[in-house]
Specification:
12 helices; alpha+beta; 10-stranded mixed sheet; 409 residues; 12 strands; 51% helix; elongated; two-stranded antiparallel ribbon
Length: 409
């Protein structure tokens, strides 16, 4: 068997070389055709580029929103809310539940031996944005320990608020987006006027859309007594999260629903899936128009080159080679248009915008994310449009007889 291997390899090499020879002329011919028919090709490419640009923009919105929600979590943090609640906004936790929880052995302690437990209260206040829209600005009441539990939070300008005073810090994505949302300004929220003393960042998470105040000051302003909306805890390394979740649910003193922050924000990101479907639907509808534009261009090319195709067939090129040639031409046109569409949408990368999910949902500020994965998906999407638009014209070209093709002028 071993002596036959070189003979088989040589046969395959000859077949490959003969295929290259058969296809070399059509490829050169297609390149020349793309340059000759500039106007129709440019119009088709423009249609595909616009569709690809819309696709990239839609996926950049989805990617940015998804990143803002999921990047809020820390791998060693857990959130506790009222049993049966689907979010911290719909949860109420009593002070005695916090007291029973914070000394569990699975909870990490700081250098002074204090448990890293952050009780938090959330509120939403309608405010007029700079663009004259009415947004639901999220307000979060925290204790100083919160910066240890939420270890991605860091002050980028100004300072941390002082406990017990009407001072707040704001996320960097809402700076100058609302009246009073700037360092040193007075911010009217609820029943009080708060002094903005700092701006914080959190690696692009949804916290950057929030206003943070002292927990007790916010409890007084919202008249909630000593109750909280949620409790965040930082776990010791290697903690058994499943056992802890079961324990806080079964303990009658605690009786809370616990989740890792990763799981919690994964569930909260359900709206992102709906937006992705909506974006794909819009891009798909526009893609149909682009496919028909590509199909019209390729049909015109087939009609104009009937005699030329007959000549190619007479010279020995197979019907499959003719079909492949036309598909390669439409795919190349779509690929070039796809690159143009990605470049067209690229300037939105890093731009910030705001998302209002519903009347009862907080407004979320986030950045557009145009990632390499999205760019590759967009180019594949463009090639699919090109192949779909060129398929029927290519089949017509393949089925055309040599005699009929040569008789037409």
């Amino acid at each position: 068997m071993y002596p036959r291997a070189p003979r088989q390899s040589g046969r395959l090499l000859k077949l490959f070389e003969s295929w290259i020879k058969i296809m070399a002329v059509p490829f050169k011919y297609n390149r020349r055709s793309l340059l000759v028919r500039r106007v129709s090709n440019l119009m088709t490419a423009a249609a595909i580029a616009i569709v690809v640009g819309v696709f990239v923009a839609a996926m950049a919105i989805v990617g940015g929103l998804n990143s803002a929600i999921r990047d809020t979590s820390s791998p060693d943090n857990m959130i506790l809310i009222r049993r049966g609640a689907d979010s911290e906004a719909n949860s109420i936790i009593a002070l005695d539940q916090l007291d029973a929880l914070k000394f569990l052995p699975e909870i990490r302690r700081d250098s002074m031996g204090n448990p890293m437990v952050s009780p938090e209260t959330t509120a939403q206040v309608f405010v007029n944005a700079a663009d004259h829209t009415l947004d639901n600005l999220p307000l979060r009441g925290v204790l100083p320990v919160s910066t240890q539990v939420h270890d991605r939070i860091h002050i980028v300008s100004g300072r941390m608020f002082a406990p017990g005073l009407n001072e707040v810090i704001i996320g960097k994505l809402i700076v100058n987006q609302y009246p009073g949302c700037s360092l040193g300004s007075d911010l009217k929220l609820g029943r009080r006027i708060w002094k903005v003393v700092g701006v914080f960042a959190s690696d692009g998470s949804s916290f950057e859309s929030e206003v943070w105040a002292d927990l007790h000051s916010l409890q007084e302003d919202s008249r909630r007594g000593s109750s909280f909306n949620s409790i965040r805890v930082k776990l010791v390394p290697g903690a058994d999260t499943h056992a802890l979740i079961q324990r806080v649910a079964d303990d009658p003193r605690i009786n809370l629903q616990a989740q890792t922050e990763s799981d919690y924000y994964r569930e909260q990101a359900g709206v992102v899936s709906n937006l992705r479907i909506l974006g794909l639907l819009v891009a798909g509808i526009m893609a149909f128009a682009a496919i028909f534009a590509a199909m019209n261009t390729m049909y015109a090319a087939v009609s104009a080159r009937t005699t030329e195709m007959g000549t190619l067939r007479a010279l020995g090129f197979s019907p499959a080679a003719i079909m492949t040639s036309f598909l390669a031409e439409s795919s190349a046109l779509a690929f070039i248009a796809g690159i143009a569409g990605v470049l067209l949408a690229l300037p939105i990368n890093g731009m910030s915008t705001r998302f209002n999910g519903a009347i009862a949902s907080p407004t979320l500020a986030f950045n557009f994310h145009v990632t390499p994965v999205i760019a590759i998906q967009a180019l594949v999407f463009a090639v699919v449009i090109g192949v779909a638009g060129g398929w029927l014209p290519a089949r017509q070209a393949m089925r055309m007889s040599v005699v009929n093709a040569l008789r037409r002028n």
